[in-house]
Structures are given as C-alpha cells and as structure tokens.
Design brief:
Mean pLDDT: 96
CATH architecture of the domain at 63-215: 3-Layer(aba) Sandwich
Helix content: 40-55%
CATH superfamily of the domain at 63-215: NAD(P)-binding Rossmann-like Domain
Structural class: alpha/beta
Shape: globular
Strand order of the largest sheet: 3-4-5-6
CATH topology of the domain at 63-215: Rossmann fold
Number of helices: 6
Strand content: 5-15%
Distance between the termini: 19 Å
Number of strands: 6
C-alpha cells in the first residue's frame, strides 16, 4: 500500500520520502520509482515506527532534507491476530507503539515542516476496524480506534492552522499476507485503490476537506 501511494505521487512529479523497517524493501521501492520517474528526488530512511528514538531521527532527517512537508501519509502499521484476554502483552504493546504512537510521534516531529508548507495535509491510514470489531482483531482494533480518535482530535486542533487532516479507513486490501488465504484477489481491494483515494483526498480544493473516508470492497467486509 505504501509503495502504491508513493507511486501515484511520484507520477505527479513529487519528491518523496520513504521509510520502512526493512532496508531491502526500501531499496526495491526506490529502484522501481527511480526507474519510472527519474526526474524526482527520493529519500529513503530505515526506521521502526514503534521505537521513539528512530521516529525522532526520522523526523530530523526529513526536516534537514526538505524545506517543508506538503503531505504526510501515516501508513505504517502492524496486525497480529489475537483476542483481548489471550494475546501476549508484547503484541499489545507492539501494535499500540507502531499503529498509534508512531503516527503521533512522527506528526509531532514534522509539525515545523508542515507549518511552512503552502497547503499542508496529514492523512492517517486507519481501518474499517477503527469503527467495527472483527473476530481475532483484538488490540489491533483498539489501536485503530485510537488512531481515528487521534486524527479527529488533530483535525479540531489544527482548524485554524491551515493544516488539513484526514482519516482514511480502508477495508480488506490485497497484500502478501492474503497470498495463502485462498481468497480470490478480485474479492478485495487492491493497494492502488487506496492510493487513488489518497490522491483524490489530496486534490480536493482549498475550500473543502475530506475529514473521513471509508473504503470497502463492493461486496463488503470479509
């Protein structure tokens, strides 16, 4: 999903910062984008969004590289199957750290760079699990509820600061984690569907804001 979002903006000529926990994933994405869009600048930084020191360093490097940040898409997330009374506490901590504290910390770190942009926008990738509990989603659902709550709070706080804030809530979206599920890929959304939604949100005129947008496959949730 992150790669698809990066690609739709690279196609528009945007300079991009990419981050991921795995250096090989970053390198592969950078090579793909650089080959297709040689005119843009791409900054890659390895970081674990669940670790405060790495998020702070990520923010510092971004601010040093770019004069301003026009769009921040908080897309990093982790899902671990579990039920509230049974899942290991370390799983709970990991999902809260990555899915909630990661976006909060990175947004705070980039706040100075957002304020200097002409029309800054923060889009937080939440989930349909931010509104509805699914069996086995345990603390993942809790973390996504929290991310939606954070997004709503930020929207209210930044109304007068000319910084747009949007919560995007996608349903089932194809990724490698679905590969062994036996589900027909056409039954669920594709990563590019979400990427196009991000682009559409970004392209809204200055006089309008998409506060929250829910995306689901045409046949609904699985």
């Amino acid at each position: 999903m992150g790669r698809a979002i990066a690609e739709v903006f690279a196609a528009e000529g945007a300079n991009i910062t990419l981050t991921a926990r795995t250096e090989s994933d970053l390198k592969k994405t950078q090579e793909i984008l650089a080959l297709k869009f040689p005119a843009i600048k791409i900054l890659t930084i390895v970081a674990d969004l669940g670790k405060m020191d790495q998020v702070k360093e990520l923010g510092r490097k971004i601010r040093e590289t770019w004069k301003s940040v026009d769009l921040l898409v908080n897309n990093a997330g982790v899902f671990l199957v579990g039920n509230m009374m049974e899942e290991p506490e370390e799983n709970i901590q990991k999902m809260m750290s990555v899915n909630v504290m990661g976006p909060i910390r990175l947004t705070r770190a980039l706040y100075p760079a957002l304020k200097t942009a002409a029309a800054p926008h923060v889009i937080n990738i939440c989930s349909v699990a931010s509104q509805k509990y699914f069996p086995g989603s345990g603390s993942y659902s809790v973390s996504k509820y929290a991310l939606l709550g954070y997004t709503r709070a930020l929207r209210e706080e930044w109304k007068e600061e000319n910084i747009k804030v949007t919560a995007l809530l996608p349903g089932a979206t194809w990724s490698r984690s679905w590969a062994d599920s036996g589900i027909d890929p056409s039954r669920i959304m594709q990563a590019n569907d979400v990427a196009q939604a991000v682009k559409s949100i970004w392209e809204m005129p200055a006089t309008a804001l998409v506060e929250e947008l829910v995306l689901r496959p045409p046949l609904g949730d699985l």
